[in-house]
Design brief:
The protein has 249 residues and is an alpha/beta fold. The chain is 27% helix and 25% strand. α3 links the parallel β1 and β2.
Length: 249
Amino acid sequence: MKPLTRLLALPRYLRDLRAYMRAPGAEPWSSVVLRPMLEERTSSHGFDAHYVYLGAWAFRQITRTRPPEHIDVAGQIGWVTCLASVTQVVFIDVRPFLGQVENLESRAGSVLQLPFADRSVASLSCLHVAEHVGLGRYGDPIDPRGTRKAFAELARVLAAGGQLYFALPEGRPSVAFNAHRVHDPALIEQWIREEGLALREFAAVDDHGRFLPDAQPTDMRDQAYACGMFLLQRSAGALTTSLEDAPEL
Protein backbone atom coordinates (compact mmCIF):
# COMPACT_ATOMS: atom_id res chain seq x y z
CA MET A 1 0.00 0.00 0.00
CA LYS A 2 2.87 2.42 0.57
CA PRO A 3 3.78 2.94 -3.11
CA LEU A 4 0.11 3.61 -3.91
CA THR A 5 -0.19 6.01 -0.96
CA ARG A 6 2.84 7.91 -2.17
CA LEU A 7 1.53 8.07 -5.73
CA LEU A 8 -1.84 9.42 -4.63
CA ALA A 9 -0.15 12.03 -2.43
CA LEU A 10 2.15 13.31 -5.18
CA PRO A 11 -0.30 15.82 -6.79
CA ARG A 12 -0.87 17.54 -3.44
CA TYR A 13 2.88 17.71 -2.91
CA LEU A 14 3.36 19.40 -6.27
CA ARG A 15 0.54 21.88 -5.55
CA ASP A 16 2.08 22.71 -2.16
CA LEU A 17 5.50 23.14 -3.75
CA ARG A 18 4.10 25.52 -6.36
CA ALA A 19 2.25 27.53 -3.70
CA TYR A 20 5.36 27.73 -1.51
CA MET A 21 7.62 28.94 -4.31
CA ARG A 22 5.12 31.66 -5.22
CA ALA A 23 4.67 32.83 -1.62
CA PRO A 24 6.41 36.06 -0.49
CA GLY A 25 9.74 35.35 1.21
CA ALA A 26 10.26 31.93 -0.36
CA GLU A 27 13.86 30.87 -0.91
CA PRO A 28 15.17 30.93 -4.48
CA TRP A 29 15.07 27.73 -6.51
CA SER A 30 18.84 27.47 -6.16
CA SER A 31 18.37 26.91 -2.40
CA VAL A 32 15.58 24.33 -2.70
CA VAL A 33 16.19 20.58 -2.50
CA LEU A 34 13.20 18.34 -3.22
CA ARG A 35 12.66 15.69 -0.58
CA PRO A 36 9.01 14.55 -0.77
CA MET A 37 7.49 13.41 2.54
CA LEU A 38 4.24 11.93 1.32
CA GLU A 39 2.83 9.80 4.16
CA GLU A 40 2.56 12.15 7.13
CA ARG A 41 -0.63 14.09 6.42
CA THR A 42 -2.65 12.02 8.89
CA SER A 43 -5.36 12.76 11.43
CA SER A 44 -3.36 11.30 14.32
CA HIS A 45 0.27 10.63 15.23
CA GLY A 46 1.36 7.25 13.93
CA PHE A 47 3.50 4.99 16.12
CA ASP A 48 4.76 1.44 16.46
CA ALA A 49 2.68 0.11 19.35
CA HIS A 50 5.20 -2.60 20.25
CA TYR A 51 8.15 -0.29 20.72
CA VAL A 52 6.29 2.68 22.20
CA TYR A 53 4.46 0.69 24.87
CA LEU A 54 7.40 -1.62 25.49
CA GLY A 55 9.77 1.29 26.05
CA ALA A 56 7.36 2.99 28.44
CA TRP A 57 6.73 -0.26 30.34
CA ALA A 58 10.42 -1.11 30.76
CA PHE A 59 11.41 2.45 31.68
CA ARG A 60 8.83 2.59 34.46
CA GLN A 61 9.80 -0.82 35.76
CA ILE A 62 13.51 -0.03 35.89
CA THR A 63 13.15 3.47 37.34
CA ARG A 64 10.91 2.01 40.04
CA THR A 65 13.81 -0.11 41.33
CA ARG A 66 16.58 2.41 40.46
CA PRO A 67 19.45 -0.09 40.14
CA PRO A 68 22.93 1.46 40.43
CA GLU A 69 23.75 -0.12 37.04
CA HIS A 70 21.62 -1.63 34.30
CA ILE A 71 22.73 -3.81 31.38
CA ASP A 72 20.79 -3.58 28.12
CA VAL A 73 21.38 -6.01 25.28
CA ALA A 74 20.83 -4.60 21.79
CA GLY A 75 17.81 -2.44 22.58
CA GLN A 76 16.71 0.65 20.68
CA ILE A 77 19.43 3.21 21.27
CA GLY A 78 16.96 6.08 21.76
CA TRP A 79 15.38 4.19 24.65
CA VAL A 80 18.78 3.26 26.10
CA THR A 81 20.02 6.85 26.08
CA CYS A 82 16.88 7.98 27.92
CA LEU A 83 17.41 5.28 30.54
CA ALA A 84 20.95 6.61 31.07
CA SER A 85 19.39 9.79 32.44
CA VAL A 86 18.29 7.90 35.57
CA THR A 87 20.98 5.23 36.05
CA GLN A 88 24.32 4.00 34.77
CA VAL A 89 23.75 1.89 31.66
CA VAL A 90 26.01 -0.57 29.88
CA PHE A 91 24.86 -1.21 26.32
CA ILE A 92 25.88 -4.48 24.65
CA ASP A 93 25.51 -4.94 20.90
CA VAL A 94 27.34 -6.60 18.04
CA ARG A 95 27.22 -3.13 16.47
CA PRO A 96 28.54 -0.84 19.25
CA PHE A 97 27.02 2.61 19.73
CA LEU A 98 29.68 5.16 18.77
CA GLY A 99 28.03 8.25 20.28
CA GLN A 100 28.87 9.82 23.62
CA VAL A 101 26.08 10.03 26.22
CA GLU A 102 26.54 10.66 29.92
CA ASN A 103 26.13 7.53 32.09
CA LEU A 104 26.12 5.27 29.01
CA GLU A 105 28.93 2.83 28.24
CA SER A 106 28.83 0.86 25.00
CA ARG A 107 30.59 -2.48 24.62
CA ALA A 108 30.81 -4.82 21.66
CA GLY A 109 29.23 -8.16 22.46
CA SER A 110 26.69 -10.77 21.45
CA VAL A 111 23.56 -11.94 23.25
CA LEU A 112 24.93 -15.43 22.62
CA GLN A 113 28.16 -14.71 24.50
CA LEU A 114 27.69 -11.89 26.98
CA PRO A 115 30.86 -10.44 28.54
CA PHE A 116 29.76 -11.12 32.13
CA ALA A 117 30.39 -13.86 34.66
CA ASP A 118 27.72 -16.34 35.68
CA ARG A 119 25.01 -14.80 37.90
CA SER A 120 26.70 -11.41 38.04
CA VAL A 121 24.09 -9.04 36.57
CA ALA A 122 21.39 -7.66 38.85
CA SER A 123 19.40 -5.63 36.31
CA LEU A 124 19.22 -6.77 32.69
CA SER A 125 17.04 -6.09 29.65
CA CYS A 126 16.68 -7.64 26.21
CA LEU A 127 13.68 -6.09 24.47
CA HIS A 128 12.42 -7.16 21.06
CA VAL A 129 15.83 -8.63 20.22
CA ALA A 130 15.94 -12.39 20.82
CA GLU A 131 13.43 -13.15 18.05
CA HIS A 132 16.02 -12.08 15.47
CA VAL A 133 18.86 -14.29 16.66
CA GLY A 134 19.88 -17.04 14.25
CA LEU A 135 18.15 -15.60 11.18
CA GLY A 136 21.26 -13.92 9.78
CA ARG A 137 19.64 -10.49 9.70
CA TYR A 138 22.51 -8.84 11.56
CA GLY A 139 25.30 -11.05 10.25
CA ASP A 140 24.78 -13.67 12.95
CA PRO A 141 25.14 -17.40 12.16
CA ILE A 142 22.02 -19.21 10.95
CA ASP A 143 20.55 -21.20 13.83
CA PRO A 144 16.89 -22.21 14.29
CA ARG A 145 17.51 -22.35 18.05
CA GLY A 146 18.88 -18.83 18.18
CA THR A 147 16.14 -17.37 20.37
CA ARG A 148 16.38 -20.22 22.87
CA LYS A 149 20.16 -19.90 23.09
CA ALA A 150 19.89 -16.14 23.59
CA PHE A 151 17.44 -16.66 26.44
CA ALA A 152 19.74 -19.23 28.06
CA GLU A 153 22.65 -16.77 27.91
CA LEU A 154 20.58 -14.02 29.50
CA ALA A 155 19.61 -16.43 32.27
CA ARG A 156 23.24 -17.48 32.75
CA VAL A 157 24.38 -13.99 33.73
CA LEU A 158 21.31 -13.05 35.81
CA ALA A 159 22.24 -12.79 39.48
CA ALA A 160 20.31 -14.30 42.36
CA GLY A 161 17.51 -11.86 43.07
CA GLY A 162 18.26 -10.12 39.77
CA GLN A 163 15.61 -8.91 37.37
CA LEU A 164 15.41 -9.58 33.63
CA TYR A 165 13.14 -7.45 31.43
CA PHE A 166 12.50 -9.58 28.38
CA ALA A 167 10.21 -9.01 25.40
CA LEU A 168 9.57 -10.63 22.05
CA PRO A 169 6.72 -11.35 19.59
CA GLU A 170 4.20 -13.93 20.75
CA GLY A 171 1.25 -15.71 19.21
CA ARG A 172 0.79 -18.46 16.67
CA PRO A 173 4.34 -19.75 15.98
CA SER A 174 5.83 -18.54 12.71
CA VAL A 175 9.04 -17.33 11.12
CA ALA A 176 9.17 -14.26 8.89
CA PHE A 177 12.57 -14.93 7.37
CA ASN A 178 14.88 -13.16 7.93
CA ALA A 179 13.04 -10.54 9.99
CA HIS A 180 11.82 -12.29 13.15
CA ARG A 181 10.13 -15.23 14.80
CA VAL A 182 6.79 -15.31 16.63
CA HIS A 183 6.84 -17.67 19.62
CA ASP A 184 4.15 -19.68 21.35
CA PRO A 185 3.61 -18.16 24.84
CA ALA A 186 3.56 -21.66 26.35
CA LEU A 187 7.04 -22.27 24.97
CA ILE A 188 8.41 -19.11 26.57
CA GLU A 189 6.88 -20.15 29.90
CA GLN A 190 8.62 -23.52 29.49
CA TRP A 191 11.95 -21.79 28.95
CA ILE A 192 11.40 -19.68 32.07
CA ARG A 193 10.90 -22.83 34.14
CA GLU A 194 13.89 -24.58 32.58
CA GLU A 195 16.15 -21.66 33.50
CA GLY A 196 14.92 -21.54 37.10
CA LEU A 197 13.37 -18.09 36.74
CA ALA A 198 10.10 -16.74 38.11
CA LEU A 199 7.61 -14.59 36.21
CA ARG A 200 6.86 -11.54 38.38
CA GLU A 201 4.85 -9.42 35.94
CA PHE A 202 3.56 -9.66 32.41
CA ALA A 203 2.16 -7.10 29.98
CA ALA A 204 1.43 -7.23 26.28
CA VAL A 205 0.44 -5.41 23.13
CA ASP A 206 -2.16 -7.32 21.12
CA ASP A 207 -2.79 -7.45 17.38
CA HIS A 208 -5.00 -4.36 17.64
CA GLY A 209 -2.15 -2.31 19.11
CA ARG A 210 -3.73 -2.19 22.57
CA PHE A 211 -1.48 -2.16 25.64
CA LEU A 212 -2.63 -4.76 28.18
CA PRO A 213 -0.83 -4.14 31.49
CA ASP A 214 -2.43 -7.06 33.34
CA ALA A 215 -2.47 -9.73 30.67
CA GLN A 216 -1.43 -13.37 30.98
CA PRO A 217 1.00 -15.00 28.52
CA THR A 218 -1.66 -17.50 27.47
CA ASP A 219 -3.90 -14.60 26.40
CA MET A 220 -1.54 -14.09 23.46
CA ARG A 221 -1.56 -17.62 22.03
CA ASP A 222 -4.12 -16.86 19.30
CA GLN A 223 -2.51 -13.60 18.22
CA ALA A 224 -0.59 -13.25 14.97
CA TYR A 225 2.04 -10.77 16.18
CA ALA A 226 1.61 -9.67 19.77
CA CYS A 227 4.38 -8.34 22.00
CA GLY A 228 4.90 -10.14 25.29
CA MET A 229 6.72 -8.25 28.06
CA PHE A 230 8.13 -10.38 30.86
CA LEU A 231 9.55 -9.20 34.16
CA LEU A 232 11.55 -12.21 35.34
CA GLN A 233 13.53 -12.80 38.50
CA ARG A 234 15.99 -15.38 39.70
CA SER A 235 15.28 -16.62 43.17
CA ALA A 236 18.25 -17.10 45.47
CA GLY A 237 19.50 -20.69 45.33
CA ALA A 238 17.55 -21.63 42.19
CA LEU A 239 19.22 -24.14 39.92
CA THR A 240 19.65 -23.44 36.21
CA THR A 241 18.98 -26.12 33.62
CA SER A 242 21.70 -26.14 30.98
CA LEU A 243 20.68 -25.63 27.37
CA GLU A 244 22.10 -29.04 26.51
CA ASP A 245 19.58 -30.61 28.92
CA ALA A 246 16.64 -28.68 27.52
CA PRO A 247 14.35 -30.50 25.08
CA GLU A 248 14.77 -29.82 21.36
CA LEU A 249 12.19 -27.48 19.80
